[in-house]
Amino acid sequence: MVPILKDCSIRIPSGQLWMLLGPNGCGKSTLLKILAGLLTPTNGALYVRRPKSYVFQNPDHQTNELRFPANGFCLGVLMMEMLCGSRFLKETNLSLQIPEASLTMQVVMPTVEADVAFGLGRLNLTNSEVRSRVSKALEAVGMSEYLQRPVQTLSGGQKQRVAIAGALAEACKVLLLDELTTFLDESDQIGVIKAVQNLLDISGEVTALWVTHRLEELEYADGAVYMEDGRVIMHGDAASINKFIKAKQSSYIDRINS
Ligand SMILES: Nc1ncnc2c1ncn2[C@@H]1O[C@H](COP(=O)(O)OP(=O)(O)OP(=O)(O)O)[C@@H](O)[C@H]1O
């Protein structure tokens, strides 16, 4: 048995944007899925405010097929794992049983407005409450003018912002964001980070944890966590983590060149 995570102790203050960094395979996504409630750790204690939302790396997984009203993001991840062919994931210290029922329907959301409103169906709101929540959420991510646009016509960064607005409309308190900017160009990348920053500023009580490989994104963070080999090596203010990672990188380059 090889544990994936060990010695992972972090605390993210409410209302802040923190980033989670580390080399490939160090356990960032696993930790994020545990925080989202998608995986259950064999040991340890966990406290995450609710409602919480998990936003995917690939916006097409979020906005078209994989958001369902009952427990949208959970089903989304389960379906993604199924689509990837690992219906029963058995990990050394983590296991996840995916139900037998195969969910193959495709939900097509025609407009940005309908997409953002989708998760509100279960909340028993009036039409005007739904409209108001959708419009506030889209405003927070700078997408108000796209209300009637078909989602398929949006750019990757715009789709990410719509996915974040969906979480926001559901009044989430915790946003778990998995490498959102991987497929985005520089201007979309900055647009998405700023949208998250803006909604944290507006709400004052949404907390976000953002997984990334891009060091330059640290400048937007209130704090950061650096992991290696399943462990949290350092956490604290973003500038110190940035310095720490850069020093590691340059000593690695020195070793290669010597
Ligand atoms: N479903 C799975 N089945 C088996 N092993 C897994 C599974 N998911 C993750 N792992 C293993 O757990 C470890 C941590 O993976 P994880 O995806 O959390 O890393 P990561 O830091 O997010 O990596 P990356 O930066 O490449 O996305 C890796 O060794 C990975 O191979």
TrEMBL record:
MF annotations from Gene Ontology: ATP binding; ATP hydrolysis activity
InterPro entries: AAA+_ATPase (IPR003593), ABC_transporter-like_ATP-bd (IPR003439), ABC_transporter-like_CS (IPR017871), ABC_transpr_CbiO/EcfA_su (IPR015856), Molybdenum_import_ModC (IPR050334), P-loop_NTPase (IPR027417)
GO CC, alphabetical: chloroplast envelope; membrane
GO biological process, one term: transmembrane transport
Pfam families reported in the protein's UniProt record: ABC_tran
Residue stretches making up the ABC transporter domain: 1-254
UniProt keywords, alphabetically: ATP-binding, Nucleotide-binding, Transport
SMART domains in the record: AAA
Protein name stated in the entry: ABC transporter domain-containing protein
